[in-house]
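Hi support team,

I'm opening this ticket because the web form for multi-chain structure prediction keeps timing out on my end. I have pasted the exact lines I submitted so you can reproduce it. The total is 708 residues across two entries, so I didn't expect it to be a heavy job. Is there a limit I'm missing, or should I split the entries? Thanks in advance, R.K.
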Amino acid sequence: MKVVFKTVWDLPAEELFASGHRACAGCGPAIAMRWLTKVAGPNTIVVNATGCMEVTTTQYPETAWMVPYLHVAFENAAAAASGIEAAIKTLRRKGLWSGKTNVMVIAGDGGTYDIGLQSLSGMLERGHRVIYVLYDNEAYMNTGIQRSGSTPKYAWTTTTPVGKAIRGKIQRKKDIMGIVVAHRPPYAATASISNLVDLSNKLKTALEYTEEGPTFLHILAPCPPGWRYPEERTVEVARLAVETGYFPLWEYDHGKVRLNPPTSAIAADPKRRRPLKEFLKIQGRFAHLTDAEIEELEKDVVANLEYLAKLASL
Amino acid sequence: MTTALQKARTVLALTSNYAAAYAVKAADVDVVAVYPITPQTTIVEKIAEFVDDGELNAELIHVESEHSAMSAVVGAAAAGARVFTATSSQGLELMHEVLHIASGLRLPIVMAVPARALSAPISIHGDYSDVMNTRDTGWITYIAASAQEVYDTIIQAYKVAETVLLPAMVAYDGFLMSHTTEPVELNDEEEVRRFLPRKDRPNVLKPEKPITMGAFAMPDYYYEIKYQVQEALLGSLKVIEEVDREYGRTFGRSYGVLQTYRVEDADYIVVAYGGASFGNAREAVDAAREKGIKAGAVRLRVFRPFPADYIAKLLADVKAFAVVDRAIAFGGPAGGPVFAEVVTALWMRGIDTPGLSIVHGIGQRSMYVEDFVKIFEMLKDGEKSKVVYMGLRL
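Hello R.K., no limit was hit. The queue was backed up. Here is the completed structure from your submission:
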């Protein structure tokens, strides 16, 4: 990661994502949008998949976007972005486009893990110079909290209710970073809205590497109504996800895996990891979990950290 | 100064698919996104040759599906590029969602569609089931009847689409045309580029003037935005005719929105679309006239917007008409989709000419000239108001 910003005071002041949009109070993704646009700057075309961020920010005739913005459909943001990137390439060759323009996809977990996975894979394989940003709130929040391929095991959603026979989601969360990295892009990283300097530096790094090919940013963005916690605790929940090891911060940079603080410290010294329970207990979606289930999830968290540490040691 | 008409003629032996590729090259298209599917594939193969040989300065995006093909050209057109895609059958079905978005976003995309039957059972052969399923997507839809017309129509389609800001598809018979070689006269490419000057579109994605495209519309705005598509599409008929005439003046070939054959004194008219149907219909007209039936034929060259006034005028005073559909409107009131359209056009104008709905050529079931002669005989015998599934084994 290139360190462009050392502290929050170094982050850009210019706002390109207007207030007054219709996202919920305490919306994690809206925080991500604000910083993504600030850091990427005005020479950025945003391609947004259908989802919360599209619906709450573009209600005709108003828009929160002060950069060029395109929404086409749910599953095809990466394909539409491929087309924009190809258009810029040709138009530049023909003298009809000037200046550097970032093409940035912004898609939720449904639009990335599930319905948009094919178009994402196509875009990565073809090597389009596009940065793909996944804001992950771990379910289909826009349609009312249905489980996605990103929803963690045992979590309550409206389609994985806590019933008498089955309690929450049965399956594990999909390893989207693993899928992306398997395409060998120049750069892919995870980030959290709780760690803004890290997030902003990763975005800057990704934008620079996008000159070579596609880059990917996986941002954890908690959702108060979907995760069922009080709206003023969004950043705290995001921070606990990182500090409990539930959501490790790491990057894949030209074949090399690197763990980033605080994940690097947690992986090196397990005592520095906070118990997973601290992340789970403030969320209503995990309220039904038994101690045995929490223990199982904690084992998964530890195993994942060990796996990433092994990758980083290669 | 020499005009295009005075320049040396270039005539090549081309399939309709290759003719489409040559038109794309002449139009100096910027971005092409295509996924292989029979019988479309030879279009993208030819375009790939043009791009790799440096004859076409375009980006060819090898997308991973037709859904992404349409999505990529939507993105590229939104960024101001001139774009092209092509597909058939299942591919057109997979694109379907994005077809509506392309017209709703008012993007001048041009697409070639060698028409093919739909699964199941899977069939690679031709009929118009795929094209007819796009009826209400807001696309301008041409149906060409020769390789020459495919070439000319794709060039015209760019001019029309970029004028009215709607996408346009150029359909033609899968295999019977897509893979049949015919002589095609090519235009001087410089002349084509003068015919298709690059114009700045007002609403494109540019950092200098940020706009939001693909917004979310509530019930207070949605209806008006969709009505504008309807207005633009209906209004495009005039532009289609003007561009066709201008093309005729520049390059010496024009087609109109309908092609007619011996209709002036006809008592009975067969309405058809596509090369094979109309070719048979014309031969059948001659054969029927030898038998003393005053027969005539009409070919629908533009399906959307539907040229209702022209059709109604032609059919108002004849004794009876038939429409030959190469698609089935399953469960519908009239057997064939275009028959239903023609009847509606007549009804809306208070015309009650008797009509016969003929379904034929499904999954490329052979259509014979004698079949079409029989249609004229049925009309003469007073058969009307029913659906005939011709060529069907029962």
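A quick check on our side: Chain B has a mean pLDDT of 97. Let us know if the file doesn't open in your viewer.
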